[in-house]
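Pilot study result, target chain (94 residues):
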Amino acid sequence: MQNEQDKQMLNVLKSIDTKLSILISLQKSSTKPVNLAKEEKTIFKLCNGKNTIDEISKTANKKKNNVKVTLNHLKKKGLIRSSKFNGKTTYVKI
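Predicted structure:
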């Protein structure tokens, strides 16, 4: 019984997270565009809420440390955020 309630709660939290992401994206879309370097653009495109640092690094053919630095720059610019679920940290555009 408790396990089923946990699953339902996780589904509700995922739904809330998705809706918040959409609201934040809509808010950001009304602001002026940000210029990104080539590597930032490449990594930004891979921030789809599913990719981890390892997956982004592999897909972009970049060193993991460089990806971490770039993700931090994108976070500071307010373009992405990280999301941790089931011990897996992924990155999503805001």
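One observation from the pilot: The longest helix spans residues 2-29. A full batch analysis is planned for the follow-on phase.
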